[in-house]
Amino acid sequence: PVLRLLEAQLQDQRREHEEEMEALKKQVDAMQEEVGKQQQAFLQTLQLSPEVQVEFGLQQEITRLTNENLDLKELLEKLEKNEKKLKKQLKIYMKKVQDFEASQTMVPAERPHDHNMQVAVQRKEKDFQGMLEYYKEDEPLLIRNLIT
């Protein structure tokens, strides 16, 4: 069984290797064809007069620059779209922060009132016998209420 498993793995590797070789051969053939076309174009341009060679070279450079410009334009549009999206998100988050800060400024003003209400409710519900239970952070509030 181990020998069969190893043979199967070897055959799989051989098949993968052959498929890779075929793909690489196709790539080499395509590249050779492209090089042949470029060589023919080069030989044809060499047969042209120097003025036409310069014009042909300029045309090729213009084509290359035009393609590069189109790519850059596309990239710019994509970046501008992303910038708009990020600005919208920033506005949303700034609004959330402002709302949160506004709620935080309201909460401390309401908190002492809420504690007074809690203390009042506790007095009604509990029967105190000389001991008072409170949280350490409520101590200043308790002292202030005792003084007033």
From TrEMBL:
- Gene encoding this chain? Myo5b_1
Superkingdom as given in the UniProt entry: Eukaryota
Q: Which organism is it from?
A: Neodrepanis coruscans (wattled asity)
Instruction: Give the record's keywords alphabetically.
Output: Coiled coil
What is this protein called in UniProt?
MYO5B protein
Q: Which residues form a coiled coil?
A: 3-103
